[in-house]
Amino acid sequence: MTTLTQDTTVNHHLDTQGLICPEPVMMLHKTIRQADGGQIIEILATDPATTRDIPNFCRHLGHTLVHQETLDDAPTYRYLVKKKSA
Fold first, then answer.
1. Which of 8, 11, 21, 39 is catalytic?
2. 67-82 per-position pLDDT tens digit
3. 74 in the Ramachandran plot: left (φ > 0), alpha (ψ -120 to 50) or beta?
4. 21 is catalytic
5. Where do the DSSP E strands lie in 1-86?
6. How far apart are CA 83 and CA 9, in angstroms?
7. Residue 10 region, left (φ>0) first, then alpha (ψ -120 to 50), else beta?
8. pLDDT digit string (tens) for 11-42?
9. How far apart (Å, rounded) are the C-alpha atoms in residues 17 and 9?
């Protein structure tokens, strides 16, 4: 995971708050297929399982987990994933 910079451009926003496993990862998979290589997808989630599932998804499929953080509210988890280039 790399350090988040202020000039990171988010190309796709995915709000999975309130959804539980496996739905957040399934929605991420669909969004990844629609994105171009190198684009950034922001994911917001409330399911604690995403702290394990999203990093594993990236590792197994070759995408980059650019940033991961826990926000104070709910808690909400925020991820930035960079789609691998073709």
1. 21
2. 999 998 779 999 999 9
3. left
4. yes
5. 12-15, 40-45, 64-71, 76-82
6. 13
7. beta
8. 999 999 999 999 999 999 999 999 999 999 99
9. 21
